[in-house]
Design goal:
The structure is a single chain. This protein is of the alpha+beta class. The chain has 5 domains: about 160 residues, 2-Layer Sandwich (Beta-Lactamase); about 110 residues, 2-Layer Sandwich (Beta-Lactamase); about 100 residues, PAS domain (Beta-Lactamase), CATH 3.30.450.20; about 80 residues, Helix Hairpins (Orthogonal Bundle), CATH 1.10.287; about 160 residues, 2-Layer Sandwich (Heat Shock Protein 90). It is built from 19 helices and 24 strands. It has a 6-stranded antiparallel beta sheet. α2 packs antiparallel against α5 and α15 crosses α19. The two termini are about 85 Å apart.
């Protein structure tokens, strides 16, 4: 890691050295004077300006030495540039670093060496200014400080020459641009009766039919050059300055080939006695540009007609998503003007104020499109009047020849009608799917639920047919009772199915009438308790004014007969069924609570689906239609039903119904 760091520093030092473009250049008097002065001040026969590149020590200036370079590996200068301080060696033979150095053992027989590093403004040490003697010496502090001052002068000289070189290069570059520019350029001086051409480029000379060098520092009258154009340019400039108007102006110019359009720009570059006297000018032939601009204008008009004529919402964005343009369809659809939205991030315009989700979608889509990706998505948009619109969005990136995204084109179509049709189709398909599922469940249920009563009927008939002659009247009556019960069970099942079918088809009839709810519940409990053949007990409790209600008595009977019968069916022998009715604030709340097997938590949400039965019912008979019908009948009363249950403890059904008919639905 340390070696890499040293290599990196050396690479930077060499880069700083090569920036001066000084290596292998001829000797120059300015540098030679500095080395001579160093030798004289230090009283040494040898003085050098030494520069270290990759492999060698090269001498830009030398006194008392004939060679121009030495290998870098043996150079004293290599040690000098390791520090900002001077390197002082009073006797090289006594210094273990240099005692065996070839430059000590042989020519130039170095014994005394004093070197000062050349430190350039970047901080790099690119070489040294040094003095050498073949005998041991000790320089004074003043001599060493003078040597340091001279080293700074060497660096200043290097900087000056680099600046002059760069200045010359820039001047040559500007001259090259000036001479090769495809437009008229020059500097003129305004005289009382003439125009003095100080500097003109080749295009100006070509226009006037004169060689460029023949125009320099020549009067227009001497060259036969018309001054009308130039005076016109200057007059326009002076007038524009007074009125603080743009200095560029365009005008038609008649030529043998026809009319051309010129654009002139003039600026004063020198004043005399407070008045502009010398002017720089640039004149372009903009005929092709004018023609292209006119064609572009026509194209823009056609584009605008198409842009505004389309029924789709179209805009133009920069790569950052800022809105540049929008068509009439988009502006009219959302009730805004272009001034309301232009210059804003597309996702933050007033269009989408009521649709934060869509704003986030647009921001993400624009970010992806700015990377060159074509993006398309559908989204729901909430309008200011709280109505909704579905929009099919696409964002197309436009790229240049280099593959850079230069523009984004968002496009949107109102697909609300299509979405409504799709929703209706999906709704129909879902309804058909549910109907098919209902049919499947119905067939499964019928095949299962009818099997037992049919088997009972068949077996009872067989017994009557084959053993009726030897059966007692009581036995025959029992067989007939089994047949009647089985038929009743099948009839009840069919009635349940027909009830569900009527509800599905919208043919369910709801007829509310005045009802004494208290008396109704008492009669219902008395009837159900009398029909129960088990030891279950139904306990009724009524609170509030429940005498006056308007409900469909037939449907009410079906609702609570089913719920109470279920409570009995799923409760243990001798269990108590609590039926509580509370009438308060025009609402009748019915609670049917049992101490039965309970309902698994995962089954509660499906309990009101047709043919659904919980997993813990075992062999308890049932079709899975009862609760589905109850829920529909409750909803026909504009009521609600809910369940609370715990496995092994019991279940409570809570039905809430309005007492008055003005809040009821007129039909299911």
């Amino acid at each position: 890691m340390r070696m890499k760091s040293q290599n990196g520093r050396e690479a930077e030092r060499l880069k700083a050295l090569h920036a001066y473009d000084i290596l292998d250049t001829p000797s120059e008097l300015e540098f030679d004077n500095l080395t001579a002065l160093a030798a004289q001040i230090c009283q040494t026969p040898i003085a050098l300006i030494s520069l270290l590149d990759q492999t060698r020590q090269w001498f830009k200036s030398k006194v008392g030495l004939t060679v121009s370079e030495t290998p870098k590996s043996i150079a004293f200068c290599l040690h000098t540039i390791q520090s900002d301080l001077p390197l002082v060696v009073e006797d090289a033979l006594l210094d273990k670093r240099f005692a065996n150095n070839p430059l000590v053992m042989g020519e130039p027989n170095i014994r005394c060496y004093v070197g000062v590093p050349l430190i350039v403004p970047s901080g790099h040490r690119i070489g040294s200014l040094c003095v050498i003697a073949p005998v041991p010496m000790q320089l004074t502090e003043g001599q060493i400080k003078t040597l340091q001052a001279l080293s700074r002068q060497v660096v200043n000289l290097l900087e000056l020459k680099r600046s002059n070189r760069l200045l010359a290069e820039r001047k040559a570059l500007l001259r090259s641009f000036f001479d090769s520019a495809p437009m008229m350029m020059g500097v003129v001086e305004l005289l009382e009766d003439d125009i003095l051409h100080l500097s003109d480029n080749a295009e100006t000379a070509r226009l006037f039919g004169i060689k460029p060098d023949e125009m320099q520092n020549r009067r227009a009258s001497e060259m036969g050059v018309p001054t009308d154009h130039i005076r016109q340019w200057i007059a326009h400039y002076l007038e524009a300055q007074k009125k603080h108007q743009p200095q560029k102006f365009e005008y038609p110019h008649e030529t043998e080939a026809g009319q051309r359009w010129l654009s002139a720009t003039v600026v004063a570059v020198e004043h005399k006695e407070g008045q502009p006297a010398r002017f720089a000018y640039i004149v372009e032939d903009i005929s092709d540009r004018k023609e292209a601009k006119e064609k572009l204008k026509q194209s823009e008009q056609k584009f605008r007609a198409i842009f505004d004529g389309t029924f789709q919402f179209i805009g133009l964005l920069n790569p950052a998503g800022i809105l540049i343009e929008a068509n009439r369809s988009a502006l009219e659809a959302f009730g805004v003007t272009l001034a309301d939205v232009v210059g804003q991030p597309f996702w933050a315009t007033p269009w989408w104020t009521h649709s934060p989700t869509l704003q986030a979608q647009l921001k993400q889509a624009i970010s992806r499109a700015a990377q060159g990706e074509f993006v398309r998505f559908e989204s729901k948009h909430i309008l200011a009047n709280e109505t909704s619109m579905f929009i099919d969005f696409s964002i197309q990136p436009i790229v240049d020849d280099a593959g850079n995204v230069i523009m984004l084109i968002p496009e949107g179509r109102d697909i609300s009608d299509r979405k409504r049709v799709e929703a209706e189709i999906l709704k129909s398909l879902e309804k058909e799917r549910e109907l098919n599922a209902f049919k499947t469940r119905f067939i499964t249920m019928v095949s299962h639920e009818y099997r037992t009563p049919l088997a009972t009927i068949l077996s009872s008939i067989d017994l009557l047919e084959y053993y009726g002659h030897c059966s007692t009247e009581q036995e025959k009556e029992e067989y007939c009772k089994q047949i009647r019960n089985s038929i009743q069970r099948m009839t009840d099942l069919l009635n349940d199915v027909l009830t569900v079918e009527k509800s599905e088809a919208g043919k369910f009839i709801f007829n509310p009438e005045p009802l004494d709810l208290k008396q109704f519940c008492q009669d219902l409990v008395t009837e159900l308790q009398g029909n129960i053949k088990t030891e279950h007990r139904i306990l009724l409790a009524i609170e509030g004014q429940c005498s006056q209600a308007q409900m469909d008595k037939k449907l009410m009977r079906h609702i609570f007969s089913n719920l109470i019968s279920n409570a009995v069916k799923y409760s243990p022998q001798g269990g108590i069924i609590r039926f509580k009715v509370i009438c308060q604030d025009q609402i009748a709340t019915f609670c049917i609570q049992d101490q039965g097997i309970g309902i698994p938590p995962e089954a509660i949400q499906n309990l009101f689906q047709s043919f659904f039965r919980a997993s813990n019912v075992g062999n308890i008979a049932g079709s899975g239609l009862g609760l589905s019908i109850v829920k529909r009948l409750v909803e026909s009363h504009a009521g609600s039903i809910s369940i609370e249950s715990q496995l092994g403890t019991g279940t409570t059904f809570v039905v809430a119904l309005p007492l008055k008919p003005d809040s009821l639905l007129s039909g299911a």
